[in-house]
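Two folds, back to back.
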Amino acid sequence: MANKSSLYGNVISSPIVSFNGGLDTRIPQNAAPNTFNDATNVSVTTQGLLTFRPGLKRWLPDTVDTVFEMYPVLYNDQMYYFVCDDEVVKFCQDGDTTWTTCGGSNSVTRNVRYTFIQAENKLYVANGNDKSRYIDLTTMDMVVFVSVTDPSNAPTLAAFGTGLTFSATPTGGCPYPIYYSINYNGAIGQTANSPIVTGWVSIDRTDWVGDNSYGLTVTFNNTAPSGATSVNLWIATAASTGSITNSDMLMVANALPIASTTFADNGSLQPILGGGTAPDDNSTEGFVATYGCEIDGRVFLWGIVGDEYALMIGGDPGNAFDFTPTHNGFRLVMNEGTNYYPTNLVSFRNNQSEPAWTMLYSNTQGVSKQAVIASETVNYGSLSFVVWTMTDQGRSVPTASSPYAGFVYNNSLFFPTATTIEELTTKPTNFYVLSVTNIAIPITSVYQSISASQLPNIVGCGIDDKMYFSCAVDGYDYNNIILVYDYTDPQNPRWYPWNIRQNWIGVVSPPNTDFFLYVSQDNHIFKLEQGTVAQDENSEGVPTPFDYGATGPISGLTPDHASYLAIVQALFYVLDVIGEIDVTINYAMASPSGLLKYKSRTKNINGPDYVVGSDGNWSDYQYQFLPSEMPLLGWGGNPIFNPADTEQPAQSYRQPVPVNEVVNEMQWQFASNSFASNGPTAATFRGVSYEGVNIGPKGDIQ
């Protein structure tokens, strides 16, 4: 054992004074000194110090059922908060003690994940179970859609002009089949297809001259039903199975005026391949969408039950929830029959860094695509209509695993995959070409402990240069952690964990007040607020302490861990301590056989007890100290400390942990102990210094 008293004149310090490398769960012997290998409920400050996460603070009333997304709406300069609960949509405002049930035809499936999409003072509900419905924010009533009757008759055909012969039956002079049908657009969707008319012509349609010298007049042969807004025309020139079906019929003209009864087809219009095939089913009461978003005032829905390859595109401003061609809405069918299904749609950019609506896909082979969604206008005589297209960007990216966690922040697109979390962005080193970066390499073992069944339930959001991912790690079947990707220092981003059970996370940014994160937990909704003691409130405002801490890397004096230190002590520097904080050094000594044997030493730092102030309120935050760079994340000012004889301020400590051994590896641990404190604790870990005499590699020489 080293003689402590004889070493003072030669003692060196091997300090670790920053933890801005964040969580790195890879092999601890190879981790950087500024990282930590394991952690619970910690944050890293902008100065690279370790402290505890924000606490849960009671906020909105409890719900009856499990609550997922809570959607904030600013309407008429007032904030409203919406949830799906107990088979209805409800809302409340700050300070309310109960939820108010929306009126109208208010009904939703209970206890399923849902998402809200807002546009034009309407709040659409998508949950993968219910047909289209929305809350009208002007009345707070739910609106559902009325069915439009399907067309019952097939169109009729007749040739016009000279040069083309038509026959209702095949003849030697008319050997080429041609098929037409129609359907109607309603307020949100389309009717089923009409019966299909079959005819034969003397010239294959692909060879028509297209100059109106000849063609076919299609008479719709149906009276427009109540609620119909426009007409679509469908066409085919071959039956794939020998008998014509709706799956052969492609859209050739859309959103024809509802008053029109005929259409003169001269062959110049080409079938709209992205419009899918003629519908078998009536969607005028809406469709069952699972996911959705709003971009530039236009609403998009996908995950359509029974139509999984489709992207439903809302209409022009004023008609955001009309997904029919009447107001330039569209049903865009993408990659039909392949292994690619739409997962995430965001407003991002294309390969040329031009603004674009970008779609990512899921795929059972682990490979996705990036595609751009755009529209173009087709003119036909006095008519014009809008066609939407998908353009593959020629880029293979990892599969997007969750439709709730793909989001754009600060010119980057973040999305979780089956094995990691990716960032799609441009960088100077890549000549500003879009490239994919795996940002979760340091926490691979944590992320890859997420069960495949839980990947679609990851929820993500970003604010204030931090990205938050709610996940179910370690095989749990519910989200039990928030992984924080802190990008406040772009040159040195870092991860750290907040161990909070939750169903959903999101950002609320009311006007004229600070933004904050909210957490849905079972049937409770909390806001996250940085206190100066580590405690969470329950839904009644009763606080409960939570513990926090971290374990550092296994470090040596040199990268090869071959230099030995006759260590006198490990000196821990801990700031603003309340309650008991335990600091530990683990260290290794090589035995003659070469086997590393690990030992540990622990000291308890006993700061002042947490004492509740005398001014009342739910949990009385009067005895709290906010680190200068950890502002409150929610409404309310910083608490004021008014010390009295029984309320001592937080204190800072330089705590030595004696060792007096010859070692070649050291590892620090820092942990709160709320049980021993009999109450909440607080501390900010500034650093640790391993102090002793560097004796070089002599310990390895035998």
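---
second:
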Amino acid sequence: MTNDSDDPLPEDSYTINAVNTISGGYVDIIITDSNLPEGAVNLNISKAFRNLNADTIASDISETYELKQGIRPAISLVTRNSSDGKSYFHGFLLERLADLGP
């Protein structure tokens, strides 16, 4: 990860985790340094990255994101009503469920 001048971001300013799921994989990036300046952040993923079967990605990936300071939304309720009247949702890893009744 680099800034808009192509200087690497400090390694302790973010975490990167590769996540494999049944339907594919993704890279989870969390900015941990609230003092990073606002501006462009470049993410470059090369074909050197491999999946669990040691296959490489089809091509290098480069994306630019805009880093902005501010309060992020917090999800307070997730529900899905099924045709049988039961509510359910699918959580992942560190998500917690609070059962607040019927």
